[in-house]
Amino acid sequence: MIQNYLELVDIVDIEFTEEYDNMVDITIDNDKSFSLSNGIISHNSAASTAKRGFSVTGTDYYGIYPLKGKPLNVREIALQKMRDNEEISSIISALGLEFGKKYTSTRTLRYGKVVIMSDADCDGSHIKGLIINLFDTYWPEILQLDFLYEFITPIVKIKKGSGQTAKVKYFYRLVDYRKWKETNTESGYYIKWIKGLGTIEPPEAKLFFKDLNKHLIRFNSTDIQKERGMVDLAFNKKRVEDRKNWLLSYNPSVEIDKFKMKQNYNSFFNNEFIEFSMADNIRSIPNISDGLKPSQRKVLYTLFKRNFKDEVKVELLMGSILELAAYHHGPASLEQTIIGMAQNFIGSNTINLLEPNGEYGTRGKGGKDASASRYIFTKLNPITRDIFKNDDDAILDYLVDDGYQIEPKFYLPILPMALINNVEGIGTGWSTYIPPFNPSDIITYIENKIKNKKNIKLEPWFKNFKGKIVYDDLNKRYISRGIFSRINKTTIKITELPVYTWNDKYYEFLDKLMDEKFIKDYDKYCTDTDVNIDISIAEETLETMTDDMIIKKFNLETYISMNNMNLFDENEKIHEYKDQYEIIDTFIDIRLKYYDLRKKNILNKLEESKKFYINKMKFINCVLKKEIVFENKNKDNIISQIESRGIEKHNGDYDYLLNISLISFSKEKLADLKGLYDKMKEDIEKTKATSINEIWLSELNALKKKI
DNA sequence: CTGAAGGCTAC
DNA sequence: TCTCGTAGCCTTCAG
To answer: Which pLDDT value is given to residue A19?
Structure first.
């Protein structure tokens, strides 16, 4: 093994900047004066990577603590909650940290240094931040010492050839890789993006640990006050507004270079951690154009692209999404995203873009009772393509991952989907909630707006909901109200629950009322869709209760907030919309702009085809009249004859003429072409004559019939 | 409690 | 009794 490992070192050319080489200056191996051990915090599979590294460093001075996912944010929480958290309390006891102690040295600790080893992605940065937050919250002094490090791993590996002659290079920063890509002239490199620590191959783990000094970056403290302020800014639950402003002032065009800056807490938060916060918003807050989050957009893109004829098992679809839309996260969240897009019980989607074939969950459990992806099937809801039109596919701005085209920045449905299906997401600094509206109302509103007519009111609307939605003027919100009736002097019957009140939760609530002896008993006759609950109450209690009192006492109202409607706007900035009208009006402007773009695009294509026919006709005509001859002429000569007749190239050459078969040189064929040309001309005229308003109206009309 | 993310333990 | 696959659980983030 050692032999292999040394060979690997010989062929490897690691790229490091000068600054980087100089910055880490600690000696750990066999340093007798360094009596304390070092702790590595990582997740479990990463711990295995680290363990392989220990065959190089030895285990005498190293220990590993595998962390499970996101650590607890310990800032301003009850001490008990922190103690109850297994991860946090284990780290504290493993290190031997004592509460209340102000550390001036790490000698009393069981490990003298801590190295955080997390994936080289933005969630990895989040985890680093949460660990820093732990130390800063209870032992800020320790961060002033030579204590905390991060273990960096490459993000890109390139390889050419195989075996001992293979050329391998690792890049630790995107800038370095981009620079190499720009200047590299050699072909045949295999490029591998190292998505997480699990991607690292065992010999590589040893290699990186052999070069420990180059892979460890110390968190330095340069300005205590400022740094402690940054940790607080990032994690204090009460400082949401500050986080907003911090993120708003971020200029992402500045390249991160923690090597050059020599990692310190301040630059970590301002240059690295902030990338997580930005990404957190991007994945959680939809775009105004299509009301979708990136993961949902990837699902839709894959279904459009694969064009599955029949339903497809969700598990299989997930595989396609990884491949076609470059989904880089865990399967659990993707599975939930797909299920969420197909659900259609009350309180879920108004127009489910995917079909729920199988058990996709019920209102009884808020859809949490959906089956696993290996049991359930889905396909595009036929109506989806009536909303996300094929004609727009050509004008979308497609993103690129690793050189491959993936989903567009946003789709342009003909309806403001942010007002159709629930919008709900939690980012950093912002979260968002937008209730659904009635698609028919939305269509009417757009029609009126286009026709400059007086417009209608838009109010939240839940498909199949039997209760009432009323406006609460005082609190500027809507109230959804369930339905009850008095059956007799001791019984009330509930036939509808307010939206977002799932039956099971409601039973728990009734159980509580029973424990309190407020009600005697209740019987449930609910189906998967309909609510039917009989509650028996003492006569003397019921007769004193007004209808309003019953509604309040039995939680038959939920509130629908209209004060947190955030979406990414056209300029890729988060915008807070003051009401539903601002959302739909903004959408209409964007959509009209893109209808115009679509029209121009279609016209360009038609004009291109028209030219194609004209030139072809000219050519055949010239040949028939013997103005162009090819007997005994070479290709160059024929081309110069074509050019001399003013006939244009198509797709950059004359192949489309040279490849015409001999039997096409006839008057009949010419007449056929003339027919096609006339049709094309007609199409162009028709397209020109149809205004974008008319196109939209006719598409809305077609959609209306299907809804 | 919500939903797109991180991750593991226990069954 | 051991192994394998995964359901179920815990965490972030704002309101």
So the answer is: 31
